[in-house]
Amino acid sequence: MSLEGGNLICFNPSCNKPQNYDRNSLTCQFCGFTLLLKNRYRAVKVLGRGGFGQTFLAFDLAENSPTLCVIKQFWQVLDRGDAIDKLKELAKHPQIPAVRESFAENGYFYLVQKYITGKNLAILLGEKGQFSAAEVWQILENLLPVLQFIHSHQIIHRDIKPENIIQRKSLNDLFLVDFSAAKLVTETSFVVPETTIGSAEYAAPEQVRGEAVFSSDLYSLGVICLNLLTGIRPFHLFDLANNCWVWRNYWLSDLTSSVEYDLAQILDRLIEPSLEKRFPSAEVALTEMQKLRGKKIPISVPPPTQTWETYATLVGDGGIFSGINAIALSPDDKMLASVSDDRTICLWDISTIKEDYTIKGHTGKVKSVAFHPHSPNILASGSSDRQIKLWDLQKREEIHTIVGHNNSVNALAFSPDGQIIASGSADKTVKLWHPETGEQITTLSGAKLGINAIAFSPISPLLASASSDRIVQIWDLIKFELICTLVGHTGGVRAIVFSPDGKLLATGGEDRTIRLWDTTNWQCNSILSGHPWLVSALTFSPDSQILISGSWDKTVKLWQVSNEKEIAMLVGHTDLVSCVAIFSDGSFIASGSQDKTIKLYKQN
Ligand SMILES: Nc1ncnc2c1ncn2[C@@H]1O[C@H](COP(=O)(O)OP(=O)(O)OP(=O)(O)O)[C@@H](O)[C@H]1O
Fold first, then answer.
1. ipTM of the predicted structure?
2. Mind listing the UniProt keywords for this protein, alphabetically (predicted)?
3. Atom in ligand 1 nearest the alpha carbon of residue 117
4. 92 CA to middle of ligand 1, Å?
């Protein structure tokens, strides 16, 4: 969906003609109510309307490239900061959408959440028809732990229905949305008034009486499963006259397969109208499922928010006279090299956290630096003097100078085997060289503007280059030809890195976003937004689970790759962050800044 393609929706719940065709208008053509919230949100679709208010699909224009989000508008202005804090706490779970912000405007209360791209279970049922027993078992395995998590936070969801469960990529990747009807058990209401009790078809008998308990959510989940297995609405699966479920009459199964037999047993205990006979908790239901199948059910837990603190700030004895442009760690983590506009390369001894020595030789700003992956004594540097220099750090002398670029050498990288050195330049080309001889292997041309960053794949003969023309190019290093062009960034691309397992490529840039690309099909899997300013640097943790980003907003952020959630922010720099690096055991993160310092952070 694009902002250009659709109409704008009026935020006034009483507006009779909410569709607006003038996409530049700030107010509704019919009722005059605002079409722009907080100067950044434009609604493009109504996703739902319930007892508490409306839910909109919206674009957030504050990001340079508008990103989709979900905005819930509550009829009344809520003064429940503690409820929002609780929602934020829940949203740390990988299967619950992140809460971006909440605010009051024009007499309504708004909650902005991350938009989960996928299809809800009601849509999936309509599209594909009845689910198999194995698929429903998978859904239970995936969702019961989420219920266990929210219940452990003393919250009852109270509106578990197919529309509120979104499948992202597979039935192993489900999200639970819409906590508007949720209730904190110790209090009378959570977000909306107590009278809101969720959807009658899926609600447990005690919930209908206004006495919801934790296992009321289990009941609703069980009823969803009946609906998915039979394709029939829950009302028709219950015999009111005899007060019992008759779902088995509609299930086209003779219980021959063991999974069907086991599933039926579990479902019967989930949808039990009597509280005494129903599973008392998600944990008990999961234990029973594990017993029946004889296998442990993996449970996803929220990534713990990490706290990193500044361990050391590296400031040169003789002083670094300009901001840091790039840093590199030696393969043994013993040395850190930094380069700056003052034309020098500084070598820092990590054991003493002191500047060891400075190398001079470039006649321009030093823009890029890389260690040989297997020889800690060989370093390459690239400069605005258009030269690449290779240095022998043991002898502290230059090995040779490589010339060939017509403009600044902005990026340097060694291939994983150390046999090739690649350079990316403001002259719009990437060049490959033999490090030992300095001979040029080839030139990869195609970018329309200067190259800002390059990265070798750790597992395949591929090189990725990022340029100011907003595109990323993937090069085959056997045939030296372009394999594909990744389009999506709406500003110049400044940073690029492959995950150490080679499965992902991360790119970041002037549009303030980070994109994660699947290296098997080169599709953009996710967009991470959170930096309010240009993303200048990226690196992955050694286990590929965490992405580290540096930004002109002066911060470094850590992102959990599996659920795209920000898990830490490292602060302290007083000017823009230009580069980041992580030690090979993941113990320290380093960042270089235009504030002329390098910071080392250690996890608490
Ligand atoms: N974060 C989200 N990402 C993607 N889709 C969402 C998200 N939140 C809600 N939705 C979709 O929008 C639909 C409507 O949202 P929601 O259920 O919150 O509003 P409603 O229908 O107005 O409320 P209620 O169901 O409580 O009456 C949901 O059923 C779900 O499919």
1. 0.96
2. ATP-binding, Kinase, Nucleotide-binding, Repeat, Transferase, WD repeat
3. 4
4. 18
